[in-house]
Design the sequence.
């Protein structure tokens, strides 16, 4: 299989499958001396994983990351304090699959001949034939995005040390769109939402809050912890959530990362209405990146906006907009151009229709990206399909183990993916600038 890697100076390679032993993220270009822990990575993974309520699949994968290589096992010599710090070698993160049950595998086995409309299962069978990993959709399941989120957690940490911050949230769901909000408010609400999810995540409390998994443990010790925890997953209880208190004190929806509470409530109502009818819904995720230096990026085939458009690689994304995006077709130049002026000796802009990128290079403004997320292909309605082996018409029965909408789980993937792109571009930018001529 090709196509499972990205980046030039910060390189990410992912592997694994929905019902294989697990997933892997392999990172090259991680700076030495970085302190990154499994707990830090898990804080991002916990907002992506399923089993969080009515808006996601009931599969309860805990998504506990294990750092396998790339950090020092101990202080390397007397007087050095570098235990647990990255050492410049490839950083490998493992995410074992723990919620695999034979009855679910059997369900896939008896239905895999009849591909779900809108899913990759037909095309992947055409490519890989009888060897296609079709259990749980294999590498074409949304499960693989856990690798992107884990890798992105590392990239975001590096970027934050250089003043670059990436934030994503649900802009639209089931036809309900959130209003324009100030960036500071968006970031405050997204941070509050993440904290709410952490406080109410039973895996976090059982594994990290209790100190059950420690960075200094050896790999086999960590795997022993996961082996024991796997037995506990069926009986895992979510801490009670006082939704009214969360709304009042935090001003966020407890299950949907939209910074406008009224819009989030209406999104939720509409999603559930569609779900109760046996169908699924889509939406839009918006991403904002700040602190990106002007001039970062490359022209022609490596444009910064083109690299960000690689977020089409997120399985459920069907369109990527930068800045004004599709609205450009209905605008005039005088309306769409971002006029510039000098404000206290610095260049400023009167608008940001370019989304922070012109000519493939950053302008220094916030980078704005929107992802269009399609409805989940798996629905609780009978659908017309085919037998992909015998090539006959068939009916596909309704499926109940599914995500009613994937939008609430895509925004952390968008944050992570954008961070991978931006860090790679930032490293190239610093390299290029440092080699410039001196006057």
Sequence:
């Amino acid at each position: 299989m090709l196509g499972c890697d990205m980046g030039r100076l910060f390189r990410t390679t992912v592997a694994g499958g929905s019902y294989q032993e697990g997933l892997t993220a392999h990172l090259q270009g991680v700076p030495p001396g970085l302190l990154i822990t499994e707990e830090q990575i898990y804080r991002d993974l916990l907002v992506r994983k399923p089993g969080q309520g009515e808006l996601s699949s009931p599969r309860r994968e805990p998504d506990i990351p294990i750092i396998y290589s790339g950090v020092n096992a101990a202080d390397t010599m007397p007087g050095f304090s570098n235990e647990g710090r990255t050492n410049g070698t490839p950083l490998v993160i493992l995410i074992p699959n723990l919620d695999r049950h034979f009855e679910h595998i059997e369900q896939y086995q008896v239905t895999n001949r009849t591909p779900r409309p809108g899913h990759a299962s037909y095309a992947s069978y055409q490519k890989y034939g009888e060897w296609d990993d079709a259990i749980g959709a294999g590498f074409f399941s949304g499960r693989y995005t856990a690798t992107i989120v884990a890798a992105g957690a590392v990239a975001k940490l590096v970027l934050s040390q250089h003043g670059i911050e990436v934030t994503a949230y649900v802009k639209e769901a089931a036809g309900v769109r959130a209003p324009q909000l100030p960036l500071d408010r968006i970031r405050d609400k997204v941070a509050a939402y993440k904290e709410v999810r952490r406080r109410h995540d039973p895996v976090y409390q059982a594994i990290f809050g209790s100190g059950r998994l420690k960075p200094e443990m050896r790999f086999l010790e960590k795997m022993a912890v996961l082996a024991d925890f796997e037995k506990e997953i069926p009986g895992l209880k979510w801490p009670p959530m006082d939704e009214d208190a969360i709304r009042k004190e935090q001003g966020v929806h407890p299950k949907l990362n939209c910074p406008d509470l009224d819009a989030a409530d209406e999104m939720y109502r509409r999603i559930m209405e569609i779900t109760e009818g046996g169908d699924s819904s889509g939406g839009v995720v918006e991403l904002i990146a700040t602190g990106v230096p002007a001039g970062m990026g490359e022209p022609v085939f490596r444009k910064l906006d083109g690299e960000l458009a690689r977020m089409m690689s997120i399985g459920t994304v069907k369109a990527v907009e930068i800045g004004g995006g599709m609205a450009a077709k209905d605008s005039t130049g005088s309306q769409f151009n971002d006029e510039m002026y000098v404000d206290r000796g610095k260049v400023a802009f009167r608008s940001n229709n370019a989304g922070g990128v012109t000519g493939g290079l950053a302008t220094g403004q916030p980078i704005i990206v929107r992802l269009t997320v399609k409805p989940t292909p798996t629905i609780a309605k009978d659908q017309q399909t085919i037998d992909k082996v015998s090539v006959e018409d068939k009916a596909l029965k309704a499926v109940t183990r599914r995500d009613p909408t994937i939008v609430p789980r895509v925004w952390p993937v968008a944050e992570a993916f954008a961070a991978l792109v931006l860090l790679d571009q930032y490293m190239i930018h610093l390299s290029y600038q440092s080699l410039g001529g001196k006057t």
